[in-house]
Design brief:
Radius of gyration: 25 Å
Structural class: mainly alpha
Number of domains: 2
Largest sheet: 3 strands, mixed
Order of helices and strands: HEHEEHHHH
Strand content: 5-15%
CATH superfamily of the largest domain: Resolvase, N-terminal catalytic domain
Shape: elongated
Number of strands: 3
CATH architecture of the largest domain: 3-Layer(aba) Sandwich
Helix content: 55-70%
Length: 149
């Protein structure tokens, strides 16, 4: 967990302080991270207040509600991930290929020719139906672009 702002805030918090967060997920992406942070705050005598969930871990009831809410949020994220995987499997079974479409080499080559003829990379990409960043990437790959991203 590389979150310098949160680390600084946690270092600054003193016994008797209340750390207010908009949402509980601001304490970490994973349930284990959030639970560890809340345990550390409790050990240091720092209360946690979630503005969106309207809960305060200074009380036993607030701490219980925090654990219940966090477990439900974790459960929802797992459901979404499972449904996404199921959807991808179902799409593949129907012959679909989810994700980014492969680069159309003919359009990329046409864009490179337009740039070589004097058109700007942005205009060339627009004319052949490519993304601007794709055109610049292909120009760099071809060694004809001196702009670095």
């Amino acid at each position: 967990m590389d979150r310098p702002g949160l680390v600084t805030l946690l270092d600054y918090a003193r016994r008797g302080d209340t750390l207010a967060v908009v949402r509980l997920d601001r304490l970490g992406r994973l349930l284990a991270e959030r639970l560890a942070t809340v345990a550390m705050l409790k050990e240091r005598g720092v209360a946690l207040l979630s503005l969106e969930a309207k809960l305060d871990t200074a009380s036993a009831a607030g701490e219980l509600v925090f654990h219940v809410f966090d477990a439900i949020a974790h459960f929802k994220r797992r459901l979404i991930a499972e449904r996404t995987r199921d959807g991808i499997v179902a799409a593949r079974a129907r012959g679909k290929h989810p994700g980014r479409q492969p680069l159309d080499r003919e359009r990329a080559a046409a864009a490179l020719k337009l740039v070589a003829a004097g058109l700007s990379p942005t205009a060339a990409a627009r004319q052949v139906g490519l993304g601007r960043s794709t055109d610049y990437r292909e120009l760099r790959r071809a060694g004809t672009c001196h702009i670095t991203a």
